[in-house]
Amino acid sequence: MGGGGGGEGEEKPFNFLQILCEGVIAGGAAGVVVETALYPIDTIKTRLQAARAGSQIQWKGLYSGLGGNLVGVLPASALFVGIYEPTKRKLLDMFPENLSAVAHLTAGAVGGLGASLIRVPTEVVKQRMQTGQFRTAPDAVRLIVAKEGFRGLFAGYGSFLLRDLPFDAIQFCIYEQLRIGYKLMAKRELKDPENALIGAFAGAITGAITTPLDVLKTRLMVQGQTKQYSGIVSCAKTILREEGPGAFLKF
Q1: pTM reported for the whole predicted model
Q2: Which parts of the chain are Solcar repeats (predicted)?
Q3: In a designed cystine with 172, which of 54, 89, 108, 159 is the match (CB 3.0 to 4.6 A)?
Q4: CB 108, CB 172: distance < 8 Å
Q5: 16-47+60-249: which CATH number, 1.50.40.10, 3.40.50.1100, 3.20.20.10, 1.20.1260.10?
Q6: What is the pLDDT of residues 18-47, one digit of tens each?
Q7: Pseudo-torsion of CA 121, 51, 32, 82, nearest 10°?
Q8: What is the mean pLDDT of the chain?
Q9: What span, in angstroms and rounded, lies between the C-alpha atoms of 117 and 154?
Q10: DSSP line for 145-174
Q11: CA distance 160 to 122
C-alpha cells in the first residue's frame, strides 16, 4: 500500500519525556508563585487549626518559614505536575471519553502520592515554623531529626495522604471537567485568566470538602514530641471530645 507521506492528520506519538519536562517546569513555577502569594493565608489557617479551644492566635510573622518552604515546594510541585500530566494523557488514551473524570481522578492521586515524598517533610517544617516552634528551616530540620529521628520529618504522613490524595484527585478532576464543559460552551480554547479562575474555584471547593482532614493533618504534624495524639483516630476522637465538631471546620 502506498505510503503517502507524513499526513497532517497523523497523531503525534506519546512523548513521555517531553510531557514530563514540560510539566516539571510549569508545575515548579506555578507552585512557587501560588505558595508565595497565599502564604500569609496559609499561615493563619495553620495557626487556627493548630490552636486548641481558648488559645490565642498570633498574627505576627505571617511569612515565617516561606524561604525554606519554597525550597521544598519547587521540586514537589514540579514532581506532581511532571507525574500528573503524562499519567493523565496516558489514561485518557486508554479510557473512553465518558470516563475522563476517572482518568483525572486517578492521575491526581498518582501525582499526589509521588510528590508526597517531598511535600510531607516540607509541610512538617513549614507548619512548625508557622506555629513558632522554630526560627529557621535548617534549625527545624536539624532539631526535628535530633529529637524525633528522621521519622519526625514524616510526622502525620498517613493523615497527609488521607487528606492530600483526595484533595489532588478531586481538585484536578473538578478543574479538568469544568474546563471541558467551558470549552464546549465557548467553542474555543480557554484563555489563561479563565483557566486561573476555574483552578481557583476548583481549589476552593476541594479545600472546603477536605477541611476536616486538613485539621487532623495539621494537628499531627505540629505536635512534635508531645505525642498528644497517637494517630489519626486518636486525634479525631480527642478533638471531638475536647473541642466539639466545630473544630474540624477551621480553614
Answers
A1: 0.78
A2: 17-90, 99-181, 194-251
A3: 108
A4: yes
A5: 1.50.40.10
A6: 766 766 677 777 778 888 888 999 999 999
A7: 50
A8: 86
A9: 9
A10: HHHH-GGGGGTTHHHHHHHHHHHHHHHHHH
A11: 12
For residues 132-161, give the mean pLDDT: 92
Q: Are 103 and 180 in contact (CB under 8 A)?
A: no
Structural contact between residues 138 and 68, judged by C-beta atoms closer than 8 angstroms: yes
Task: Please give the torsion angle defined by the CA atoms of residues 99, 100, 102 and 108, in that order, rounded to the nearest 10 degrees.
Answer: 170
Distance CA 154, CA 141 (A): 11
Please give the grid coordinates belonging to residue 182. 467551558
Give the residue from 215, 193, 214, 42 showing the smallest Cα distance to 130. Answer: 42
Asked if 225 contacts 148 with a C-beta cutoff of 8 angstroms, the reply is yes
For residues 129 and 192, is the Cβ–Cβ distance under 8 A? Answer: no
Question: All 3 cell numbers of residue 169?
Answer: 484527585
Q: How far is CA 178 from CA 74, 100, 174, 182, 225, in A?
A: 26, 12, 6, 6, 44
- How would you classify residue 95: left for phi > 0, otherwise alpha for psi between -120 and 50, otherwise beta? beta
Q: How confident is the model at residue 14, as a pLDDT?
A: 60
CB 90 within 8 A of CB 59: no
Q: State the cell numbers at 137.
A: 528551616
The Cα 135–Cα 169 span in angstroms is: 34
Domain ranges of the chain: 16-47+60-249
| Amino acid, single-letter form, for residue 184 | L
Burial of 13 (0-12, 13-18, 19+ CB in 10 A): exposed
In single-letter form, the type of residue at position 125 comes to V
